[in-house]
Design a protein that fits this description.
With 594 residues, this protein is α/β, with parallel strands linked by helices. The chain has seven helices and 35 strands. It starts with a helix and ends with a helix. The structure holds (2S,3S,4S,5R)-3,4,5-trihydroxy-6-oxo-oxane-2-carboxylic acid.
């Protein structure tokens, strides 16, 4: 059967059975594409009882009363308008703690689109999305922090079209994350929406990074999507006068193994990026890409062959001053500027994939990045559907950011506890990550060390598989110091580098009430915790990085102390208004001197 015919049959089937479009993976680097932004004000219907999907309400049909006896009990017109991208919680007072569905509608115009394919691309919707175009369901997606797209070539009309999205942020037991997590559950179309047009056969994906075992070659692939799978392709890096030519095979794929000698490597001190152009007979795309190697050797982490110490800070994707999700370049700039000012060479973007723009900006600024999946604490690994969801999220994240030199670590999970299902899931995920991308390190953050007197033992067997051991420890806060005079000694079963991915405690900016008591949330109490932590670090020979918890106070509804917390986790080095607590200066000093 001819490929074009096959494509037509698939599209026709998708029309009849829209579920076939579930899980359609997104093209990469949409900044390099011809696109029309669908950001802006969308009309909405707030649907607390989740009624709009039913046949009677059918909000997706956007029905209007026809005759004198007809009526419709809903309407987008006249309803609240919400800004996209942006969470809905921060936009209307009645949505402050809202966890349910909001329906969004937006119309847009289309000119003739011959010889083009069209896609609606969502950078993220938290947590579940159903998407309808002109009254027809074109697909759905689960997972609040990764991109997805639907091909709409055959659904678009010349002239006006309307896209309706149901965004639901209800926490669910079998979700990722699950029911409980320590951050605010911002819902809605939280990231950009674009209508993207491509040639009939387009460059859907490419992986262009240095081979980790041989920094003098690029390894990777280019993947085409569309009927003309076999094509001549070229990769050019004009600044280096570099050209490489090859062909894609009958599946649309070209594997790359290219000698690549003269170049400047990406480092935090000099974050060199090159314009890399990928051209085929039918398409062209270009992107700024950097080149580096990252490896583990015994207890060392080597960037471009040199051992380094990771000086980082944990960051949530939130703008505390506005009490909302971060969604714009200026939001990301503010957060990353703070990290730079603190003296960081890396950032841990917790506890879910942040916007790819933030990762790109970190890369330009010379910050290495730890990216993380929302496999957080109470995940039910034994749930039969979990494996599929975890795999999909990992695939979506790696697909999106695998060309980022700055991203050196994929973190699979945070604070999970050993069980046969947990262990086998994380080990399988590790191998999946490595099979998709062998150009970065993989880890999982654990907090299950065993204390015996003033000794802390790292024993979680999953560490045997991970490249780096990552430990969250709250000595001085959740766990009192075992001994007043002796520092805790860390003992590991595994000969691997250790990162303290979290440590810290709470304090309210400007509060110096009773520095001897944790329960007073005083700044000096927190300073003492950090002083002891830094003292303890000196004696850990395999410590290769530290990441205080965290940059800035963040919203967490479970933090209910009426005087000091008021729904905020107060472990920031900065207050929710961006004021520097005393501990900020201590950390800045530590980073300067280590
Ligand atoms: C942790 C979690 C983090 C919490 C933090 C805390 O161990 O990884 O998500 O916010 O502790 O403040 O308790």
């Amino acid at each position: 059967m001819k490929t074009t015919l096959k494509l037509k049959i698939i599209l026709a089937l998708c029309h009849l059975f829209p579920f076939l479009l579930f899980g359609q993976s997104a093209m990469i680097h949409i900044d390099g594409r011809e696109r029309t932004s669908l950001n802006g004000l969308w009309e909405t219907i707030i649907d607390p009882f989740d009624a709009g999907s039913g046949d009677w309400a059918a909000y997706y049909k956007d029905r209007k009363p026809l005759g004198n006896t007809d009526f419709v009990e809903s309407s987008f017109e006249g309803g609240p308008q919400l800004y996209v991208p942006g969470d809905f919680n921060s936009q209307l007072p009645e949505l402050y703690y809202y966890e349910s569905s909001v329906w969004y509608k937006r119309t847009f115009k289309i000119q003739a689109t011959e010889n083009k394919r069209s896609f609606i691309h969502f950078a993220a919707v938290n947590y579940k999305a159903e998407v309808y175009l002109n009254g027809v369901k074109i697909g759905e997606h689960e997972g609040g922090f990764t991109p997805f797209q639907f091909e709409v070539t055959d659904h678009l009309r010349i002239g006006n079209n309307n896209v309706i999205v149901k965004a639901n942020n209800q926490r669910i037991q079998d979700g990722i994350p699950g029911l409980g997590f320590d951050w605010f559950n911002y819902g809605g179309i939280t990231r950009d929406v674009d209508l993207i047009q491509t040639p009939t056969t387009y460059i859907k994906d490419y992986f262009i990074q240095l081979a980790q075992q041989d920094e003098n070659s690029i390894e990777g692939y280019v993947t085409l999507d569309g009927p003309k799978k076999e094509q001549a392709i070229a990769i050019n890096i004009p600044e280096l006068n570099f050209t490489y030519k090859t062909r894609t095979d009958s599946s649309g794929k070209a594997k790359l193994k290219i000698p690549f000698r003269k170049k400047t490597l990406w480092t935090p001190a000099a974050p060199k990026l090159y314009e890399v152009q990928v051209s085929t007979e039918t398409d062209h795309i270009q992107e700024q890409i950097g080149f580096r190697t990252i490896k583990v050797d015994g207890t060392n982490i080597l960037l471009n062959g040199k051992s380094m110490f990771l000086k980082g800070i944990n960051i949530h994707e939130e703008v505390p001053q506005r009490r909302s999700r971060a969604y714009s370049e200026s939001d990301y700039q503010m957060l990353l500027d703070w990290a730079k000012e603190l003296g960081c060479n890396y950032v841990r973007l917790v506890h879910y994939p942040h916007h790819e723009k933030m990762v790109k900006m970190a890369e330009q600024m010379g910050l290495m990045v730890w990216e993380e999946l929302p496999i957080y604490q109470g995940i039910n690994f034994a749930d039969p559907g979990m494996k599929k969801k975890m795999n999909l999220m990992l695939r979506e994240l790696i697909a999106r950011d695998k060309n980022r030199a700055a991203t050196i670590i994929w973190s699979l999970s945070n604070e999970t506890y050993s069980s046969p299902a947990r262990d086998s899931s994380l080990i399988a995920l590790y191998h999946l990550a490595k099979s998709l991308d062998n150009t970065r390190l993989v880890t999982s953050a654990f907090n299950n060390m065993r204390f015996e007197g003033n000794k802390a033992y790292i024993e979680d067997e999953v560490n045997r598989v991970m490249d780096i051991m990552a430990i969250n420890q709250y000595l001085g806060w959740y766990k009192t110091w075992p001994d007043a005079d002796k520092e805790v000694e860390w003992i590991s079963k595994f000969h691997k580098p250790l990162i303290f991915s979290e440590f810290g405690g709470e304090a309210v900016f400007g509060n110096n009430i009773d520095p001897k008591r944790a329960s007073s949330w005083s700044e000096d109490y927190l300073v003492d915790i950090y002083k002891r932590q830094f003292n303890m670090f000196k004696n850990i020979s395999f410590l290769r990085g530290v990441t205080p918890w965290l940059l800035v106070d963040f919203r967490s509804p479970g933090r209910a102390h009426p005087t000091y917390q008021k729904g905020w986790n107060r472990k920031g080095l900065l207050s929710d208004r961006g004021e520097k607590k005393k501990v900020w200066y201590l950390v800045a000093d530590y980073f300067k001197n280590n």
